[in-house]
């Protein structure tokens, strides 16, 4: 079993747009119904529920992805050049460290959901 994992159940205003965005991030569709969508990347799954009236600028939804190492994924996603700056959606931060928290970077998806992509390896 992989040490990498996601804990997520997030809103989607439009499943087709969500699928297209996350496909660029390397996720594939595992299930799509009228009110539920499941995407997968290397055994890590994200579930989405339909929320067409969501205002992405007011979204408070979030999820965590925990990886042994984050630099490779950050470089892969940054190279896509699909992210805006500052308050634009979607957006991607540079890796950083907060006191008492693991090294991480953040991603806001087009629906305003905040991802914290955290490193689980021990500091040297």
How would you portray this structure in words?
By secondary structure, the protein is an alpha+beta fold. The protein has one domain (5-52, 61-119): 2,3-Dihydroxybiphenyl 1,2-Dioxygenase, domain 1 (Roll), CATH 3.10.180. It has helices at 15-24, 71-78, and strands spanning 5-7, 9-12, 28-32, 36-41, 44-50, 62-67, 91-92, 104-108, 114-119. It has a five-stranded mixed β-sheet with strand order 1-6-9-8-7. Strands 2-5-4-3 form a four-stranded mixed β-sheet, covered by helices on one side.
- The helical percent reads 10-25%
The CATH class designation is Alpha Beta
Number of strands: 9
Please count the helical segments: 2
Integer tally of domains: 1
Mean pLDDT: 92
| CATH architecture descriptor | Roll
How would you classify the helix and strand content by structural class?
alpha+beta
User: Could you give the order of strands across the largest sheet?
Assistant: 1-6-9-8-7
Q: Which sequence of SSEs, written as H and E, runs from N to C?
A: EEHEEEEHEEE
Indicate the CATH topology. 2,3-Dihydroxybiphenyl 1,2-Dioxygenase, domain 1
Shape: globular
């Amino acid at each position: 079993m992989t040490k990498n994992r996601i804990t997520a159940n997030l809103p989607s205003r439009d499943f087709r747009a969500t699928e297209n965005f996350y496909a660029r991030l390397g996720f594939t569709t595992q299930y799509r119904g009228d009110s539920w969508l499941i995407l997968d990347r290397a055994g890590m799954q994200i579930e989405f529920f339909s929320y067409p009236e969501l205002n992405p600028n007011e979204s408070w939804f979030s999820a965590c992805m925990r990886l042994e190492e984050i630099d490779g994924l950050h470089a892969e996603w940054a190279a896509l050049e699909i992210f805006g700056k500052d308050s634009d959606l979607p957006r991607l931060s540079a890796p950083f460290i907060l006191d008492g928290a693991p090294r991480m970077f953040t991603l806001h998806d087009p629906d305003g959901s905040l991802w914290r992509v955290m490193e689980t390896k021990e500091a040297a």
